[in-house]
Amino acid sequence: MPTQPDAIDIEQLRAQLEAMYAPSGSTADVVERAPTYQPQRMIDTARLGFIKPGVTALTREAKSHSPDHNALKAQHIATLGTYIDSLRIRKLRGQ
Amino acid sequence: MAFFKKSLQLLIGSDSLRLPTMKLTKRELIQKESRIGGELFGSVPAGHHRQFFNLDPSTWVWYEEWTDSKGKPQNRTTRYEVHENGVLKVQDGAPYYYIEGQELDNLLLATNMYYERVAKEIYKFDAATGKTLAA
Predict the structure, then answer these.
(1) DSSP single-letter state for residue A45
(2) B115–A73: do the CB atoms touch at under 8 Å?
(3) What's the whole-model pTM score?
(4) Cβ B83–A74 below 8 Å, yes or no?
(5) Contacts across the A-B interface (CB distance below 8 Å)
(6) Inter-chain residue contact A6 with B106, CB threshold 8 Å
(7) Cα–Cα nearest to A52, from B122, B130, B123
(8) pLDDT, tens digit, for every residue of A33-91?
């Protein structure tokens, strides 16, 4: 059977995910280093402060599995998709 | 290439393979990305071919092909549709559901890694600094 995200051996992924989390018990100290070319924002990125491309630390919120945080995670994934689409467009335009 | 074509056919129909030149180029970019995406979840079992890629801003695709114990080719396509309230997992023959918990975290991390790697390796863009890298 193929391995799926719900059943994969994620040791490597987990290590990186843990490395991205803020130290246990600490509050978030997120340094925003999002791309400067950001496309038109479709979502409230202020609420996504806990996780953005290129950040090195995430708040404890990122560990939450509440419906609200699940929605934020989905929005973050959508933002990444938008970034990637922007990169493709730039490449196709030869920029 | 065959795996990529097949997965695209499964997802958006065979007509999509007859696209104008610019879209073919975009497809080629996605194909390059999918090779990187296939590496994100660790080693691929012998005899398996795996692809994971971003199809459009709201769709991520996992495609895996393998041969079963009877020598019969098998494949599975999983589509992750990003909605405002969550990520819907879509597989043929399986109930659709919004992923949560560890599965959602895994996807979140995988998409982060995917973005950072394709940005750097294909588009020469450093996601961490927001700066263009030297070609």
Answers:
(1) G
(2) no
(3) 0.66
(4) yes
(5) 147
(6) yes
(7) B130
(8) 333 333 333 333 333 333 444 443 444 555 566 676 788 888 888 888 988 988 898 88
Per-residue confidence (pLDDT) for residue B90, from 0 to 100 = 92
Domain count along chain B? 1
Most confident of the following: A49-58, B44-53, B126-135:
B44-53
Q: What is the ipTM of this complex?
A: 0.79
C-beta atoms of B115 and A17 within 8 A: no
Cα separations in angstroms, B57 against A87, B23, B80:
12, 15, 11
For residue B111, the enclosing domain spans 2-132
Tell me which residue of A77, A59, A61, A22 sits closest to B85, measured CA to CA. Answer: A77
Among B19, B4, B53, CA closest to A80: B53
Measure in Å the smallest separation between the Cα of B1 and chain A Cα atoms: 19
Residue listed under structure tokens 């970034």: A83
In chain B, how long is the greatest CA-to-CA distance?
51
A contact residues 10-39, partner B, Cβ 8 Å cutoff: 10-13, 16-17, 20, 33-37
